[in-house]
Amino acid sequence: MPEELPQQPPQLQSPPPPPPYAGGYAGPRPPYGPPYGSPYASGYPQVAYAPAPLRQRSPWFYVAVIGGSFAAICLVMSAMVWWSMRSIQGDGSGLGLRGSQIAVLDINGVILSPEAVNAQLRKFGDDSSVKAIILHINSPGGGAAASQEIYHEVMRIRKEKHKRVVASVESVGASGAYYIASACDRIYANEASVVGSIGVIMEWMNYGDLMRWAKLKNITISAGELKSAGDPSRDLTPKEQAYFQSLVDNMYGQFIHDVATGRKTTDDKIKPLATGQVWTGQQSLDLGLIDKIGGFRTAVMDTAKDVGISGEPSIVRPPKNKRNLLTILTDDGEDLFPNPSQLLNRSPGFYFIWK
Prior knowledge:
This protein is α/β, with parallel strands linked by helices. It is built from 10 helices and 11 strands.
């Protein structure tokens, strides 16, 4: 047999050199042999690779990026606030709660102005998702006219909007606060709550002795016999005393009549209770001043049942107006540092208040 010759390994052919072009070779690095441009790669042109120059950004590019980011954050925050306000103020459609809400409006402390309470009453009265309103009361009353305005707004919502309005007395629901409660469909109170004080009081500060001690004289020029009645620098005359008493008596009659109207009874039945005194919730039930003994939870669940809400009702409240440092610094500062002259400018005031 002829002798077999050893097989020769196949000769690998070197790849053709890359075509030269401006900027050097930008293709993939071959998997064999030394890298292009290496001194060991014989036969290949020596090419120097220069790093690509960095692109310079215009300052306006960064301004646009920062401004766009800020605008996006503001948009997201505005959407969150809007959604929260819808939920708080009684729309609730985004949460699937529409039609099963009870609005709660707190009446706390001395009643000085009806504006905030009446504004919320109107908002809840116009909201179709709010089926009933509960006035959560803890107040000794306040200004006669302010209490009366809230009373009439409650009556209007009941008649025009056909919404149930319920009062829940926490610790105190006296005088002007009871005046408001009497306009509601029902009044709830705890056994130890303080209720009543149907009456009127008029008061102001007389600083005549202080002026005499300081050797000051008050000079008043007026036309009309009773124009300066109630001047805090002097005592009342008998005629002025009778004049102010007639005003108080007239407001007292209005108080009795409005309570009787709200409680669906007569003036004659309320008048014996209009002595200015207060009773406990337990005593008030027997006197017909309230409808049921029970706290806020009892009022909520009973009201929900009365308006056809099954299960746990959704409670909505008006947003709280929180005072921050900026608000304190930008307001007139009267709350923090009262003007001493205000103590000398108090005119006679008429109040439905329990003291």
